From TrEMBL, chains A, B:
Enzyme Commission number(s) from the entry: 1.1.1.3
Organism of origin: Peribacillus psychrosaccharolyticus (Bacillus psychrosaccharolyticus)
Stored PANTHER family: HOMOSERINE DEHYDROGENASE
Family the entry assigns: Belongs to the homoserine dehydrogenase family.
Top-level taxon in the UniProt lineage: Bacteria
Record-listed L-homoserine binding positions: E190
Top EC group: oxidoreductase
Cofactors that this protein relies on: a metal cation
Residues engaged in binding NADPH: K105
Record-given protein name: Homoserine dehydrogenase
Length: 432, 432
């Protein structure tokens, strides 16, 4: 009975989890694939670092070639992160006919298409379940579970840091900066949280999800994204009052051949399945033409959850090795993409405005919307402490993004509008 | 380019959906498998019945042999339901080297192990994703997505009829019989709803889920089940008041090698992910040692949702045909089962009692629990309209099922206890 040998690139949070799961669940792995699995060599940056797992010293190396060029190593597991250097390593591994499992969303969002082509050319598997939504098997859900259906919409809470922050802000009425500090102290946010709070991390994941879900090559550059740094406590209070929950939503939608992929804070009706996804949890809501609404929920990060996805990919690679069919399961995108123009994107919008408290103000504003064909679902007008001012909060019916942009531009020229405090999309009504 | 030919057994609700999806999504299917798929022959009971899809008359047959013995047919899709006759058909199909996709939970819960063995012996695939939770790809989630992990608990809302009924009873304060009639009128409940409301349907699904999730042969006979017919409006009112939601929960839990599989109405904390699964929707909550909490949510029944699962299985069969690896993906159960005894099952319990309103009643009752080592989480005592009576509602801390059964027996002998109105398990606290 041959032993399958693994080379590990990186031994940080996820890498330690991978080592633990392969050790602990060796029996289950053997039962499924018929032979033992061992980690042969691990590329690290520092040989003497204190780590969360015990690994014999002779397995560690500082030299990538010890992992990438060892002919005994069958599968490379990449959990080191990074983009350019990592890409070079994985290309070399694939050219050396090693299968690859990666958890690297940054890399897959930018170079996924290239890496998958090289993998197929070399009859190698390249799996990346862990790159989106940690422990949730969502990529398999799209590729296998819903292989017969055509997806029309995906909405993802795919960044745990921002979901933790928004949950705490909503529940405790705390300010963004305070909750960010708490998240950093708990390890849910990094010292430099920019990639998370700007929406970039979620945008990478939505590029990967959309490519698979819509069977089109969606690049990171196709994803418009906006983060959570501008969300105020007032926005959350009004959202709740109107029956909505604020979430950072990765949104992919398709009408026929045209798609929109974006990331932004959005308001969801309280009864929407995503609205109760709280704290650091992730979930991906998928709408298919035939299946209707489905949702996949679970931990979006963390050592063992993410490692579960990595090792499950490894099991798939090893099953394919046993059957001799590696490198033959990837399906290339079926459709060419056409991104929607702002005149083709339709949504409901939430506006919060500070206006002068004068006769006819509401009439002027509602007329402006009416002139652009936009009607209202909800309107609140409230006096403000500041003299001669009032606050207007409104939620529109569906209209095009282009019209909302025009309305905003014109509003900026209205003397009666002191400030457009915030605008958000409202998504997920009518069960979609 | 060869065409893959399908034989369909049954053309009812799910069968019509299968025909539609194969027609509508032919392009997507061809893209994935490299050749066209057509339905060659369909076994029906009545050639002239009005149906939801148009099918050329020559494709319909009353003779099973036209489907099962046609050498051109590669894959049999079974959506006719039933047990003994259907089992015989599928055994014949497998012996004729035809791959099988089935949506039949009744059959799989009873004869799944036999059919899977025959399939493997004949190098055939036998897939049954649609048999549990309709359109939700939960079996794949367990077998592939969480293949690296060890599952310790599954809780499923796996019967849409009872979930619809309980949701309406909870939200509108309606009585069971009234809501059942509404569900029947809407097509969510059958004319004879016994299999659903008794918990039998859910028990079948839990047997299938537990076999896969725990890698043990769990038979239907191993599943203790109880339905929803005894739930009163009062029970729902008290549940809500104490912060719980009542659901019909299929429960599989494992401690080491010992398992419990059961179906019963249970109370979940309102914030539990399953608590907001409403109406006819299904969801399966899965707890894995490494991954922690995950949940798979979606439509548990319906023509197109269930057909999505069937045709996704068909895609898997056809991909395996292309690779020449059919019949080699089934993994036989790894462990032998040991069912937990009542002394090994631990849970929290909800009790609702009618008692005489006398001095010392509460003391006597709490003493009885204390004598069995059971302490309390919550207690409510309320006067009743009936003279000299009061109602006691209590929720215990965790203790063994054996002790609860003893307490109930003794309580029956207490003159002060007029009636034990209801008892329910409380599940899903502390995130598990």
């Amino acid at each position: 009975m041959k032993t399958i040998s693994i080379g590990l690139l990186g031994l940080g949070t996820v890498g330690s989890g991978v080592v633990k799961i392969i050790e602990r669940n060796q029996d289950k792995l053997i039962h499924q694939i018929g032979c033992p699995v061992r980690i042969k060599k691990i590329l690290v940056k520092n040989l003497n670092k204190e780590r969360d797992v015990e690994v014999p010293e002779e397995k560690l190396t500082l030299n990538p070639a010890d992992v990438l060029d060892d002919p005994e190593i069958d599968v490379i597991i990449e959990v080191m992160g990074g983009i350019d250097e990592t890409r070079a390593y994985l290309l070399e591994a694939l050219k050396n006919k090693k299968h690859v499992v990666t958890a690297n969303k940054d890399l897959m969002a930018l170079y996924g298409s290239e890496l998958l082509t090289v993998a197929t050319d070399n009859q190698c598997d390249l799996f990346y379940e862990a790159s989106v939504a940690g422990g949730i098997p969502i990529l398999r859900g799209l590729v296998d579970g819903l292989s017969s259906d055509r997806i029309t919409k995906m909405m993802g809470i795919v960044n745990g840091t921002t979901n933790f922050i928004l949950t705490k802000m909503s529940k405790n009425g705390s300010a963004y900066q305070d909750v960010l500090k708490e998240a950093q102290a708990l390890g849910y946010a990094e010292a430099d949280p920019t990639a998370d709070v700007s929406g970039l991390d979620a945008a990478r994941k939505m590029a990967i999800l959309s490519t698979l879900g819509f069977s089109m090559n969606i690049d990171l550059a196709d994803v418009k994204y906006e983060g959570i740094t501008g969300i105020s406590e007032e926005d959350l209070v009004y959202s709740k009052r109107l029956g909505y929950t604020m979430k950072l939503i990765g949104l992919s939608s398709r009408d026929g051949d045209k798609v929109e992929v974006s990331v932004q804070p959005a308001l969801l009706p309280e009864h929407h399945p995503l609205a109760s996804v709280n704290n650091e949890y992730n979930a991906v809501y998928v709408y298919g033409e035939a299946v209707g609404e489905t949702m996949f929920y679970g931990p979006g990060a963390g050592s063992l959850p993410t490692a579960t996805a990595v090792v499950s990919d490894l099991v798939s690679v090893m099953k394919n090795m046993r059957l001799g069919v590696n490198g033959r399961s990837a399906v290339s995108p079926q459709y060419s993409k056409t991104l929607k123009k702002p005149s083709e994107v339709k949504a409901k919008f939430f506006f919060r405005l500070h206006v002068k408290d004068e006769v006819g103000v509401l009439a002027k504003i509602t007329t402006l919307f009416a002139e652009h064909g936009v009607s209202f679902d909800k309107i609140l007008q409230l006096p403000m402490e500041e003299e001669h001012s009032s606050e207007i909060v409104l939620v529109t019916h569906r209209a095009t993004l282009e019209n909302f942009e025009k309305i905003q531009q014109k509003m900026n020229d209205y003397e009666i509008v002191k400030e457009i405090k915030s605008t958000y999309r409202v998504e997920g009504e009518n069960g979609k």
